[in-house]
Every structure is written in structure tokens, then in C-alpha cells.
Amino acid sequence: MSHRAALLAAVAEGESRLCNFSSAADCASTLRCLDALGVHSRSEGGVLAVRGVGLAGLRRSADPLDAGNSGSTLRMLAGVLAGCPFRSVLTGDESLRRRPMERVAAPLRAMGARIETTEGHAPVTVDGGALNGVDWQMAVPSAQVKTAVLLAGLRASARTTIRESIATRDHTERLLPAFGVPVLREGACVTVEPGSRPHGVELAVPGDASSAAFLVVAALLVPDSEVRIDGVLLNPLRTAYLDVLRSMGGDVEWRVEREDPEPVGWIRSRSSRLTGVAVPPARLPALVDEIPVLAVAAAFAQGRTTISGAAELRVKESDRLAALAEGLRRLGGAVEEQPDGLIVEGGRPLSGNTVRSFGDHRIAMALWVAGLGASGESRLDDSACVGVSFPEFPGIVAEATGND
Questions:
Q1: Distance of CA 45 to CAs 20, 26, 49, Å?
Q2: Closest CA to 150 of 194, 106, 118
Q3: Do the domains at 2-198 and 209-401 have one common CATH topology?
Q4: pLDDT digit string (tens) for 279-316?
């Protein structure tokens, strides 16, 4: 949500004020890239003020745009730059340079942008310019790619339509009207027309749903625990993990308190006895970021949990399937790695050990939660990487548990 709000504020006319903008390192990467493109922002008492330059106001950066560890930054920004009449080079850290980028390059090329990847990866060179509209069928479910194409469509000469066979996060479609850009949504299709001029807004960014998942699961696993999280995003395409936890027997409740432009409300979670479940491929697009912590919940549940259709996790910040299997085994869990998922035989007592995050923020937090439920002391080789998405996580856990 913070990435999308910043990108739309950048190409809007006038100033936008974004309350509760994420403190994550990934979102800071987006702001640094925008600053290099001539979009300046400043923090004022918990509000990020972004001075928009309009759709035609971005300027060429003399240096490559460094997205750090953020795939969201690189892929979505490629869509913004596709319509700009200059060359941009997008790159990132070693982890990001291993992630696939042809999936975003292909539809932008179909719109007329000249885009070169480095053997399918970053660095990505974008020679932007005049764009055509496109009617694009998504081959790989990806909200980042969908967002890139919709943002490029703002500067296209004709309408741009995205067709999805599997629904992905719809944050961009919800945010565009807030910035004054009409969106037509018909079933699995999303369309933007050219000619709109986004305007500045005042927007409260909801708490991140994926970050909340780690706290929700921690409360389920630690005896005599209860957590309530307020002001969190409850978009139905982001709450699938709550449905899975409830099907496992988790004492989890949530309620929407406001709807526009996104459903926002609270989640409450209490210690529970969990049982294993099957997570089929059809559910994965709505769960992709929560699979690491759901695998941890499965290790504490009675019985077998199967997760399938999750091959996409092998090309994230790490090979998350391999990383989870290794980490949970080190703690005493019974995990069988599959080409596209995991089989977790839950119910075995876990005990403390040293585990590896592979520099991946979601693996680090998932294994941190596993360590909270295990007996004895657990050590994580790299905890600093959690700052990529949830820098407050260590402090919140320390305050809740009295354990640093």
C-alpha cells in the first residue's frame, strides 16, 4: 500500500499527505528512487508529504535507480518509467538481481516500451516513450506486474486492460480512483482509460496485513497469549491466511471498521490448539507472503499440513521453501520439501537451535515466531533483515514477551 501510494502521489498534480506510511526499508527504497527522479518528499509529524510532479514531470536520473531488496519498487516503477521519454536503469541488491523480471518486461514491451533485462533479471534498462494501450492476459499471477501495466496505462494512447485467471491483490485498482483516475472493473478484468490526471490526496495507509500475520501466529502458539492489532488492512484478498488459521482451529477474529479506499479494522488472536490442513494451489496467490508463518503454525499443529502450488516461493528473496524446511528441521520439526510446496508433520515438540534466515525478512520473522513457541533458546543468524518490511517487529516482540 505504501509503495503504491508513493508512486501515485509522485505522478499526481499537487501535494499528497500520506499518514502511517511504512517505515520499511523497501518503502524507503521507493522514496529514494522517486527522489532521484525529481519527486521530493518530507516527513512531518508521522505524515509523509509528497510533492507530485504530474505524469509528464519525472526527470531522468543520472545514476541507476537502486531498488535495494524491493521487488515491488523495481517492478512497479518500471511501469511508471515505461512512458517517460528517457532511459532509466533499475537495479537492486544481490537478492533482487536474482529475481525474475521478464514477467514485467513482456507486457511493457507489448505497449511499446523498449526494455532490456539482464538474462531475465535486473539490472533492467527502460527506454520509455509513447505507449499503446494493451489487452493483456496475465500468465503468472502477480499484483506487482498488474500494477506496472496499469501505471503505464496512464500514459498510453488507448485503453489498457489486464485480464487475470487468478485474482491477485487489488490495491492499485482501489487506490487509483482515490487519486482521481477512473477504473473499470468487470469480473477478472481491470481497465484504465488514457487522459486522466491524478491529483494529490490525503490518505491513511492501513497497517500491513502480511506483517500482522507474524503477530497473529505468535499469539496462537505462545501459551496464555492474546494479541489485538488495530488499523490493519482487511482487504478480502489479503485475509486468506486468517481463514486458514481459523480452519486449523485458531481462535482468530477480525472486523472491518471502514471501507474506503480499502477495508481496515482489527484482528484479535488467542492461544489455540491447532490441527493440520491442506492448503491447495488455488489459494496460493492470496497467501504467498504468509506461507512462511503458516508453515510455522503447521509445525505446532497436530497432524499433517500440506502446502502445494507454491513454486513462486523459490524465487523470492530466498528459496523460501528450502529455507523453511531447513529452519524448522533444525528446531526439531518434521518437514518434507516438495518441488512446489511443503509437507509438515506437526505436533512434535520443537527445541531451540541456531537457524538461518538467508537474509530474507519473512524467513527471519517466521523462524523468530517458531523460536517463541519452542523450548529453550533459539538464535537467528541475521535479524537485521526484518527491517526490509517490519523494522518494529523485534521491539514489539521484546515488549510483549520481556525477552530480547
A1: 10, 21, 10
A2: 194
A3: yes
A4: 999 899 889 999 999 999 999 999 999 999 999 999 99
Q: Are 264 and 231 in contact (CB under 8 A)?
A: yes
What is the pairing mode between strands 47-53 and 251-258? unpaired
DSSP state string for 185-208: EETTEEEE-TT---B--EEEPPBP
- Within 8 A by CB and 6+ apart from 66, the residues are 29, 32, 33, 91, 92
Class of domain 2-198: alpha beta
| Catalytic-residue membership of 289 | yes
* Cα distances (Å, whole numbers) of residue 25 to 3, 246, 387: 11, 31, 6
Cα dihedral: 125, 129, 135, 137 (round 10): 0
- Any idea which fold 209-401 has? UDP-n-acetylglucosamine1-carboxyvinyl-transferase; Chain (3.65.10)
pLDDT score for 26: 97
- Below-50 pLDDT ranges, the chain: none
Rg (CA), the chain: 21
Q: How far apart are CA 395 and CA 385, in angstroms?
A: 14
Point out the catalytic residue in the list 26, 66, 208, 289: 289
Per-residue burial over 173-191, b if 16 or more Cβ lie within 10 Å, else e, is bbbbebbebebeeeeeebb
Domain ranges of the chain: 2-198, 209-401
- Residue 186 makes CB contacts below 8 A (sequence gap 6+) with none
> What is d(CA 247, CA 128) in angstroms, rounded to the nearest whole number?
47
